[in-house]
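INFO  loader      accepted 1 record
INFO  loader      residues=228
INFO  predictor   begin
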Amino acid sequence: MNILFIMYDQLRFDYLSCAGHPHLHTPNFDRVAQMGVRFSNAYVQSPICGASRMSFYSGRYVSSHGAAWNGFPLRVGEQTLGDHLRSAGMDCWLIGKTHMKADAAGMARLGLAPDSIIGARQAECGFDVWIRDDGLWGQGPDGFYDERRSPYNEYLKSEGYPTENPWATHANAGVDEDGDIASGWMFANADKPANIREQDSETPWLTQRTIDFIDQANDPWCAHVSFI
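INFO  predictor   done
INFO  writer      dumping tokens
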């Protein structure tokens, strides 16, 4: 048995046709819903992305695991989904986003090398990393996003998008009436389509990375596919 654990970032609960949305059509989600259980009344543990994710991964309240905000590390020693599945003989891989920040102080106190197998898993919520991409790269308005080079941004460059940061100028931007870049950070530009080919957007890019993983992975596995 394998597990495909799919998560979407900032997907409204009613933006699915199986949830009754009158205009958005999501046939693949609808098929999954027909085969399983769709909860129409549920609560996340936090409205904050990173804190909510850490509750998913650890099975604990935010007040218990302590990662209360984006950029707050999940403490060393917190047992996660990956730890439990690995002890049962199943590999647990990350494909996409976690918003995880390593507990560097805790790792140093316990003598865990960041490049060791245990250290690397502690730094990635218990997952082994197939590909990690948190999406927000370098030029966010608050200036605190991960400075590591984004694999998705590098893909866009390889496809010929001409700027240093095509995520900011194409994937997360539109074009205004004068032909200038209209940043997706500005709510006034929310009505503009992304300045990018549909097949090059983040969703199909990460989907293809997932297909590559499934083609190469050895059973049994859990793949946490975390779309932006």
